[in-house]
Amino acid sequence: MMNEHILLVNPWIYDFTAYDLWMKPLGLLYLASHLKNSGYKVTLLDCMDRHYPFMPLPDHPGPKRLKSVGCGSYYREKIPKPAQFLSIPRYWSRFGIPWDEVKKQLKEIEPPGWVFITGTMTYWYPGQVAFLNLVRQLWGKTQVIIGGWYPTLCSEHAHQWGFDRIIEGIDPLLVIKQLSSDFKELSTITGYKEFFSVKPAFDLYKKLDYTVVLTSIGCPFRCTYCASGRYFSEFWRRPWEQVLDEITYDYENYRIQDLAFYDDALLYRAEESFLPLLKALQKERLPLRFHLPNSIHARYVTREIAELMRECNFETLRISLEFSDVDSQKNTGNKVDNFIFEKAIQSFIQAGYAPEELEVYLLFGLPGLKAKDYELSIEYVTDLGLKPRLSLFSPLPGTPDFEKVIMHQIKDDPLFQNKIAYLYLSEQNELYEALQRKISKYTFFH
C-alpha cells in the first residue's frame, strides 16, 4: 500500500537578498488542509520559517518599523556564487534554516511517500533543485513533486532535474486536477468555492507573528511586465463572510496582531466583497493591523474605502503608479493615470493618512526607459509629498516585456531573471543607486 505520509516543503531561497515581508506559502497551506481532510498524514517543512526552533539569528535585524509588524530578516549562509554572477559585487546566500539542521530534521521524520516542493520566483529554482537532491540522497523511493511559478513559466527548464511530477499552473483548480490522478480524494474539488472551504493549515507552525489571506483569484489587468493575471481562467472573488470568518479564526486561534492581504486586485469590484468586509471588520473591532504589500490599484480607491481602511487599521499601504509618464502608462497596460492616482491619494489623505504613510511603487529597469523618465517620476511623487519606492523589474517569461529583453541568456536560464542580477547585467546598477540616493536625500530633508 502506498505510503500515506506527505512532506510539504517551502525550500530555501538562493539569492543576493531576501526578507520576510509577510511571506508564507499560502497555496501549500490550503493544499495541506485538503490533504489532511482526505486522510493523509501531512508534515510541513518551511525552510523560511524564522521561528523554527533551531533557527540562528540573522546578521541584520532589518527595518525597525517592519520588525514591529511581524516581518524580519532571514538567517543566511553565504555560499559560492554561480559562475554566471562572478562579476556581480554582491554576496550570494542560501537563506533560511541551515542546511545541516534541515538534513538532521529530515533524518528524524518518518520517510514520506511523497514530497511536494513549492516555489515563488522562477529564479529561486536552485532551492527546489537542492531539496530534490537531498530527498534523493536520504529516501531513494520517495516521489518528488514540484509546483509554483518556476515550473509554470519555465516548464522546459524544470524537466531536466528528474522530478517525478511537475505541476504546471498557479490556478488552484488546475493544480488540484493534476494532483488528483495520484490523490483520488482531491478530485471532488471542482470549484474555487470548495477549494477555499477549508482554512489554510497555519496550525502546522509552532509560532506565528502574522497570517496572510487571499480574497480573490486572478487580476483583470494585463500589464506588460506582470504574469499574474495571465494564468487564471477568470477573476473570482470569495464571499466576504468566508474571508471574515478566516480572519477572525486566525486572530482567535493564533493570537496574531498582523495580517497581510495577498490579492493582486483587492479593490476590483470592491462593492461585491471588500467593501462589505471592511464594514464588517469595522463592527468587529479586532485588534489587528492589516497590510497590503502587493500594492493596490489607485483606480478603485474611493473616499469611503479609504476611510474604512483607516478605521480598520490598514497600516501598510502601497499604491502602484510605476511611471508618471503618460505614454509609459498607456503602453504597459493602462491601469492608472496621474489624475486617477492623485484622486486616490487625496482620498487617503482626507481619510486621515499622513503622506509618509503612503508608499508609491515606481518600476525600475523596464527595457526602453531612460534616466530622465525615472527622475521625472520621482519628482512627480515627491512633489506630492509622498515616498517613492523603486521596485526592480524582473523579466518574467510569458509577458510582452520579457520579449523586449536583449540578453539572450535570460531565456536559457531562469537564474538570469533574478532582479538584482538583471540590474547589474543590464548595466543599470549605477543609475539605480544614484536614484536611491536622490530619494533618500529627499526623504531626509522632508
Report on the structure:
The protein is of the alpha/beta class. The protein contains 18 helices and 18 strands. The strands form five sheets. A six-stranded parallel beta sheet has the order 11-14-15-16-17-18. α10 links the parallel β14 and β15 (289-296). It is globular and about 60 Å long. The mean pLDDT is 92.
Q: What is the β-strand count?
A: 18
Strand content: 15-25%
In order across it, which strands form the biggest sheet?
Answer: 11-14-15-16-17-18
End-to-end separation: 68 Å
Envelope shape: globular
Largest sheet: 6 strands, parallel
Question: Radius of gyration from the CA trace?
Answer: 22 Å
How many helix segments? 18
Parts with pLDDT < 50 across at least 5 consecutive residues: none
Mean pLDDT rating? 92
Category by helix and strand content: alpha/beta
Helix content: 25-40%
SSE inventory with pairings:
Layout: E1 5-10, E2 13-15, E3 19-20, H1 26-37, E4 41-46, H2 64-67, E5 72-73, E6 76-78, E7 93-95, H3 99-108, E8 114-117, H4 125-138, E9 143-146, H5 149-153, H6 155-158, E10 165-166, H7 172-179, H8 192-195, E11 210-213, E12 216-217, E13 236-237, H9 240-254, E14 258-261, H10 274-284, E15 289-296, H11 303-311, E16 314-322, H12 326-331, H13 338-350, E17 358-364, H14 371-383, E18 387-392, H15 400-403, H16 409-412, H17 419-425, H18 429-445
Parallel strand pairs: 1-4, 1-8, 8-9, 9-10, 11-14, 14-15, 15-16, 16-17, 17-18
Antiparallel strand pairs: 2-7, 3-5, 6-7, 12-13
